[in-house]
Amino acid sequence: MQNHIDHTNTIIELNRVCFSYTEEEVIKDVTLEIHKGDYVGIIGPNGGGKSTLLKLMLGILKPNKGTIKLFGIDVKEFKDWSKIGYVPQRAHIELNFPATVEEIVAMGRYGKRGLFHFPTKEDKEQTLLALQQVDMLGFKNRQIGDLSGGQQQRVFIARALAAQPQVIFLDEPTVGVDIKTQKQFYEFLRKLNKDLNLTLALSSHELDVVAHEATELVYINRTIVYYGNPEEFLKGAYFHELIGKGGLHH
To answer: For every residue of 182-233, which 3-state class applies, written as one string?
Structure first.
């Protein structure tokens, strides 16, 4: 296992975090840092704890042991959630909801303004800017259910971007889309990461694509097996051992 420890520009810090839904630990003794500008791919087997790790960092789940800090503040005390965007799995989103693309993205401003405030000129500008940033401005009047899977995911990223976050979490963002769309989508995320200096953390079982786009790779199987440079992981003996055992999608 390789550790990447650099305490400058740390956005998220986990220290010896453990979590269990029942008696058996799903996350065990995880220590991890995510820094400003990172594009972190979290990979591992089904049931290995990828999505659970994201939910712990988002404060959706509470650790049984250890500490989690967001922007230097304990997650239990953290209040500035507009700094953090979240794109859930498409399977968890009602796509038949009768709303236009622009209306969906405008929902991302609620965290800034509150649910019952009238949209301001700035809200409108940030909504359109977010659509422009994901190359979906021309689709603003389309119904969300009429778009392809890849287009829908871009819209949900725009919704997260509308709040002007500093980091976005994505949970299995390419479930249900074809291989070509997956590759285009992860390339698109890399462009956002570079052009906007946007920190990204995503869980995925698509190792091949993620490893070629992410700047940092976390392999988790309840505990962290590897954390570091994706290219070094792909060259390493451990990766080839996992492939041989069928422990990864490849």
So the answer is: HHHHHHHHHHHHHHCCCEEEEECCCHHHHHHHCCEEEEEECEEEEEECHHHH
| Confidence bin at 24 (pLDDT 50/70/90) | confident
* Residue 179: its H or E element: helix 179-195
Q: What is the pLDDT of residues 94-122, one digit of tens each?
A: 666 778 999 999 988 876 665 566 778 88
Give the domain extent around 130.
10-245
Pairing of strands 167-171, 84-87: parallel
> Is residue 5 a part of any domain in this protein?
no
Domain count, the chain: 1
Q: Is residue 171 situated within a structural domain?
A: yes
Which one has a higher pLDDT value, 53 or 90? 53
Residues contacting residue 124 through CB under 8 Å, at least 6 positions apart = 106
Task: Supply the pTM of this predicted model.
Answer: 0.84
Cα dihedral 143, 169, 39, 248 sign: negative
Phi-psi region of 223 (alpha: psi -120 to 50; beta: other; left: phi over 0): beta
Q: Read off the CATH number of the domain in which 167 is found.
A: 3.40.50.300
Residue 250 in domain: no
